[in-house]
């Protein structure tokens, strides 16, 4: 990246902007207004017009429920300009009118439904609606009561008219009394649990008739809505890509028109500051000079001048540059922080370690294949770059899950269990008969590792089942603890080495050798010491060696920039390593649930439903068993995507990145002035 | 003091198993207590700004390290620690 200044006469600002936008290379540094002789530039062209058009277009998009998507069709700029008038004019007005009519209908329907609902309790009253209100000398009480009121009303007011219908708690009444008696009657009514119903005005005829009229009106209006909605849907289907293309076109125009707001300008000239990939400078210079007819000056600042801007707080933009396979993993880097310009981009490391950890945790051929297939299907549906990255990450990870699944001998749970189930060696299998019903249980004994057999030497006194390895077996757990810690040492070690390298790149030798390096030594030799202890107790040479190195590394920390306080981080480094045990732990949880699912289906549900299962299984038992099997495996699969994804993420962010990454605060992503055209064809 | 050997099925073995269970279980409760606050906050943020979901889920996981420590203690108890042997 090089710091570049583009200066020229205001007369050529438009072609310069046009060319810069087209090149899509210059990362513009906004003019901050610190200099008295310059002021902020003014928009060129019809920027307010574009803004208005954009507002209208966006509201059309909202009514049509158009959201950003990948293009199916592309349009040339001429096509867009010629059709823009129609879309923004007649068609747009039609869309807006239709959408507004739909919301009007919704409103009316709601009002009518509410009225019908409030009248429902009164349906059987033998009084017409228009007679229920609008008197000067009469007070009307309309509502429901819980017990007959005629006698009490007569007691209070001799002159009265009471209509009622129904009985019990929901008796509907309409009571008419002279106005002057209203207070007393109201008191009498409230003793009968009177609750008033406000009669909607403007309706006539019998109450039951009014209710059915309201309901049929609501239904008719609903019917009116359907063709309108279909119309919007048709418009959307027909014009979706065009509308998005117009959106893109206007956005580009408005971006160009408003760009001078980011430049410094005087009465007659403008100055654009920005960063440019160094190797592109000559090309950009030539293109700009050509576009402006030589009335523009393009200059690259040399290193020391650019350095001044950086010291003044300007960030050099970073462009992550990774091979295509690795690129999806930039998503994970970005979620944490954009690397600074001088920093190492950790994306390739994530590419190596992340899927490996995912696979180690999930480690099941069946789950791996399902995730792989589902992701392949989703890949076609979700085509925006963010989704694509995510899907590709999981896709690559699922391949590792299959590989580890083969190593662990797992296919929807341990393979051994399947062989056990189907062979019927000790118990009635799906296809077999009972031999020893009492020998049902989790403990298969050491000879039982499925049809693939097992290979591998003894490890530290334990018979090490290496292939396929039953993860729930004690010896395997111990082996996996070792593997997890080993991965942890490599992972944090790489992080520490990069930390040393980073500090050196920033010229901070003391931080490099007395803060980052001792961490590396400490963590590596901590684990070597553990290994020594397992191999030969406290007097093993490895233990002695590592004890020496640990003391030396702590000594180095004391000499470091933080002094004695640096030693307080030691528990943190130990916990960093122990944290990698999650690779084992979550994997065990996952295989445990899969195991339980199989057990539950084949050793609990099926035998129980067929009376002990001594004579084979009944059909219903098999059906129920399979339902149980599928349900539990499905839940486990959902968890099996989430946990193996989030936990390695954490291992990267917390355990690895803290060793080296963005210790100097996050960087700024290179986002050049311009726009990638998606719906527009060049 | 009488030193008992730890034998399969013996009382000491049982006590060790109980201890291992407590180590993981109590650590799990601790992590849960930690996560409840974070979870509530994350749900609040996600309601306002759905884009925060990824970061929120990640923050939720931070206290889960506690369980791992508990589990490490359990594993040591069950498989590696033989004090009276």
UniProtKB/TrEMBL annotation, chain B:
Keywords: Membrane, Transmembrane, Transmembrane helix. The keyword Transmembrane applies. Residues 18-77 form the V-ATPase proteolipid subunit C-like domain. It is found in: Membrane. Pfam families: ATP-synt_C. Signal peptide: none annotated. SUPFAM superfamilies: F1F0 ATP synthase subunit C. It is a multi-pass membrane protein. CDD domains: ATP-synt_Vo_Ao_c_TtATPase_like. The keyword Ion transport does not apply. It comes from the Archaea. The chain crosses the membrane at residues 12-33, 57-81. This is ATPase. It comes from Candidatus Methanocrinis alkalitolerans.
